[in-house]
Amino acid sequence: MQAIVMTGIGGPEVLVAQDVATPHPGVGELVIRAEAIPVLFPETKLRSGEFPMPVEPPVVFGFQAAGVVVEIGDEVDATLLGRRVTVATAGFGSYAEFVCAPASSVTMIPEDLSSADAAAVLMDGSVALPLLATAALTGSETVLIEAAATGVGSALTQLAREFGAARVIATAGGPEKSMRAKALGADEVIDHTAPDWPTRLRETLDGTTLDVVFDSIGGTTARDLLAAMTPVRGRILSYGWLSGAPAQISAMDLLPHGLTLTACAGPDWLAEVSRSGTAALERATAGTLTPRIDSVLSLDEAAKAHRLIEQRSPIGKIVLRP
Ligand SMILES: NC(=O)c1ccc[n+]([C@@H]2O[C@H](COP(=O)([O-])OP(=O)(O)OC[C@H]3O[C@@H](n4cnc5c(N)ncnc54)[C@H](OP(=O)(O)O)[C@@H]3O)[C@@H](O)[C@H]2O)c1
What we know:
It is built from ten helices and 16 strands. It has helices at residues 41-48, 115-135, 151-159, 174-184, 197-205, 221-224, 251-254, 267-275, 277-286, 302-310; strands at residues 2-6, 15-19, 29-39, 59-60, 64-72, 84-88, 98-102, 107-108, 141-145, 165-172, 188-191, 212-215, 235-238, 260-263, 293-298, 317-321. The strands form three sheets. Strands 3, 5, 6, 7, 8, 15 and 16 form a seven-stranded mixed beta sheet that branches. A six-stranded parallel beta sheet has the order 11-10-9-12-13-14, with helices on both faces.
């Protein structure tokens, strides 16, 4: 079969199309014929070495795929054969025509949802839903959603009001992405490519305060937001490091205002994310969470997809089609 092999840690050029052996399922595993493979932002960090790869290269790259179950291993429910599902691999192997994954990672794709839409919405929706549940918004609160035009931020922006946000302030990079964030449901958008954007945020707040920050940028900017937060009730949900480092905030920064920082990461958090897959796909089918596909590329264009993500140009997911 054709697959994209990560030949080493490095730039997008380490992702090379090769013919490799078709995988077969072990105990508790199944194999799907892939129809749509989402290219995920964190995958670019794993490829570049910024995040640790769970498996040493050379290895077939990739973490998620959507398609039809064509083979099952022992101890797997036989009714899964022929069903359309999404899967999460055990750390490798999704950029391929056939993908082997634990049967426990399966999310059924509703009949009315295409495999491409399921692939595009799965991660964004299943991270946004537990973030919103954790935020426990009251119906009268103001939220800040960083990097709101794409990915998890775009799902948060679509859902925030339904989950109890009264005012949604978003950040995005540049005019086109700012317009997109507004179209998704933000009341106001601040361009986070301006280094002084926290100052712009305080001007926008005009004396009011932020109750919840969905922080995907992290770094030192996170600390600049503390003065704009509601004392005692204000909470930061730290789930990303787009700036290259998690929120640089210590207990000494939080104590004077009684603020809370919740780390939305780690194995137990990811288990919660994984449990939210069905709800994300059901929402996409019902129309309460719209999948955003920037482009569909052929499998052998995986390196190009990584380049585009690193240039921050996609507005929506890039999906690979074998
Ligand atoms: N904790 C979890 O469960 C979890 C799960 C998935 C993802 N994440 C993390 O959440 C963050 C967002 O992921 P995603 O999948 O939603 O990403 P994404 O939206 O698909 O892509 C990243 C976007 O972030 C914006 N951005 C802002 N500052 C950036 C910077 N310094 N470098 C690159 N891009 C920057 C870019 O948009 P602009 O052009 O608008 O700036 C870019 O389009 C990442 O840090 C990711 O690792 C966490």
